[in-house]
Amino acid sequence: MRGGSSVRYGASDNAVLKLALWREWKSKCYWCREPVTFMSCQIDHIVPQVITDDELLHLKRHFGLPDDFDLHDPQNLAPSCASCNGPGGKGSSAYGAPVYLSQLDKAARHRPAVIARVQAFGRSGKVAEHLLQVINADLSRDDARQEFLEHAPAVVQILSMAGDGLADYRSFNRLEVEVDKFGSEQGVTVSLDERGRTTAALLEEVCGADLGSVLREPVVQLLRQVHTRAVDHFEHRNLDNPISAGASISDWFVIELESLDFHRDGQQIEFTAGGVFEGNLLASLTRSDSRGDGLEDLQCEVVVNGAFSASVFWDLASALSDLEAGDCEIDEWRVDDLSLVLAEWA
Questions:
Q1: Alpha carbon 241 to chain centroid distance?
Q2: What is the reported pTM?
Q3: What would the pLDDT profile of 5-32 be if each residue is shown by its tens digit?
Q4: Greatest CA separation found in the chain?
Q5: 309 partner at 20 to 30 Å CA-CA among 68, 157, 188, 236?
Q6: Structural contact between residues 238 and 287, judged by C-beta atoms closer than 8 angstroms
């Protein structure tokens, strides 16, 4: 663990810790990536609390977890929806899968900010405490909901007067984007601020194009690039023992659209989109065996994640919905190759 901390599950009021986790993970369940309200959000242990000492020792040895790995430290905590954290959710027997280590890596990156948020809250006055009570209010109760609706607009007004953009919020939606001629679809979670919602409205009301159709070509390009990079990674992982990889397939793959914008240049309007992606990819590999006199087949598995940007163009003189897709670029790329470790562990 990178420096001990008093910020941990159960050390004090978990509501403050939950708020810090919820904000750092962008108000989404870390497992299914769906938006989750603060009220319904739960704190989940990525490596389950029920793990035995022997199992934890095994994880430390084979996956490089620090000797002082603390199950209740923010390095092992994430916000979860009730479905993923409950019976029949992500389960507790698969923590050796690559996706778990990928999530642990994310939690480790979020850890400093989570700790800073919790500690800053502890130095705050009564205003922070009262606001936490408001955030944690059960709005399914008629009296609480009525109270909230009566007084919340004043808070929004105060924010708008305190500075531009402070009263902005993000809306969430989910689209199913068709990605091939066979009707296969890729889910895209859409999280937009005010500018993004304005751009989406422009696309629909002025250009006559719905967001799902606009995203189709960029999503197809993104998936193609991700699989190409994955196969290239598989084939170049061991240059001393060349590997031939088959086409990769997705065990799961998620795309989140986080920004949408536009600008006009003469007769042309350029729409730009940006977001993140993550997925678990598998491929069959063939390489020379250790004796060099034959071939052996392997199964490779990786978790990839990163960020992407894309653009779409519309000429004002063109017909409605006649948009031209530009390039979709992978701006950030990370691959966690755990297949050999998993094979050794198995």
A1: 34
A2: 0.81
A3: 789 998 777 899 999 999 999 999 998 8
A4: 78
A5: 236
A6: yes
Phi, psi of 285 (to 5 degrees): -120, 150
DSSP H or E stretch at residue 318 = none
Query: What is the per-residue pLDDT across 192-246, written as a single tens digit (0 to 9) for each?
Result: 999 999 999 999 998 888 999 999 999 999 999 999 898 888 777 664 565 677 7
Q: How many CB atoms lie within 10 A of CB 178?
A: 16
**Phi and psi, residue 274, nearest 5°:** -145, 155
CA distance 311 to 326: 5
Q: How many Å apart are CA 187 and CA 337, to the nearest integer?
A: 24
What is the DSSP code (8-state) at residue 35?
Answer: B
- Coil, strand or helix at 96: coil
CA atoms within 13 A on the CB side of 300: 27
Contacts with 225 (C-beta within 8 Å, 6 or more apart), sequence order: 328, 330
Q: Which amino acid makes up residue 215?
A: L
CA dihedral 275, 278, 284, 289 (to 10 degrees): 110
